[in-house]
Amino acid sequence: MNIILFGPPGAGKGTQAKYLVKKLNGYQISTGDILREEIKKDTDIGKKIINNMNEGKFVSDEIVNSLLKNHIFDPKKKGKLIFDGYPRSKSQAQNLDIILNSSNQKIDYIFFLNVNKETIIERIKKRKILEKRSDDDLDTILKRYDTYLFTTKPVLDYYSKNSNFHEIDGSMEIDQITNKIKAFLNF
Ligand code: AMP
């Protein structure tokens, strides 16, 4: 089962992705984590993206799409992909369709975790203390939220008419959100 977790930064996509990975024996495809790993390993890609990441700006489609491809075409991950943080624009959504098609796969479920701006700011402030992410300071959060509104949220036009699209109130407690997801998946 391939699943997209969609929503603004701080919606809880990563937390629910980790639950689904365990439950479905799946693989979390977090483009944010994949990109942070490149920075940690100080690779050529890491050196190219570090400034954009720290400023909360998008990394280029060329880089994100090429890193993503390796995971989608990995035979052990086929049909077990839990996307968290991808797609983030209409062009990425189109690219995902093309890559999935060419590897004989499809998206089975899309869960939109909808959360308002105030809740996001509070959550990310807490995450900054716990995870010390360099892009979690207030200025960067606000920038990332604006990018979400203008570039990522329009992806909903692309998915929301599909019968596999489900909106969930992402301001609920973690377990309540998990229960909603479980109900949609008939667990
Ligand atoms: P995240 O961990 O999903 O909050 O992503 C952290 C940062 O990684 C973002 O602010 C972007 O700089 C970069 N990033 C993650 N996913 C993508 C993507 N799909 N497209 C472009 N940049 C991305």
Folded structure, characterized:
With 187 residues, this protein is an alpha/beta fold. It has one domain (3-179): Rossmann fold. Helices cover 56% and strands 12% of the residues. The chain has nine helices and five strands; from the N terminus they run βαβαααβαβαααβα. The protein has helices at 13-24, 31-40, 44-54, 61-72, 90-102, 117-131, 138-152, 155-159, 174-185, and strands at 3-6, 27-30, 81-84, 109-114, 165-169. It has a five-stranded parallel sheet, with helices on both faces. α2 (31-40) crosses α3, α4 runs parallel beside α5 (90-102) and α6 packs across α7 (138-152). The longest helix has 15 residues, at 117-131. It is globular, with a radius of gyration of 16 Å. Bound molecules: adenosine monophosphate. Residues 9, 31-32, 35, 52-53, 56-59, 64, 85-86, 88, 92, 135, 144 line the site of adenosine monophosphate. Adenosine monophosphate binds next to α2 and α3.
Percentage beta strand: 5-15%
Instruction: Compute the CA-based radius of gyration.
Output: 16 Å
Strand arrangement in the largest pleated sheet: 2-3-1-4-5
Helix content: 55-70%
Instruction: Report the CATH topology name.
Output: Rossmann fold
Query: Could you name the ranges where pLDDT drops below 50 across 5 or more consecutive residues?
Result: none
Major sheet, described briefly?
5 strands, parallel
| CATH evolutionary superfamily | P-loop containing nucleotide triphosphate hydrolases
Tell me, what's the shape? globular
| Chemical compounds bound to the protein | adenosine monophosphate
**The CATH class:** Alpha Beta
User: How far apart are the first and last residues' alpha carbons, in Å?
Assistant: 13 Å
Number of β-strand runs: 5
Q: Which structural category do the helix and sheet elements fall into?
A: alpha/beta
Mean pLDDT: 95
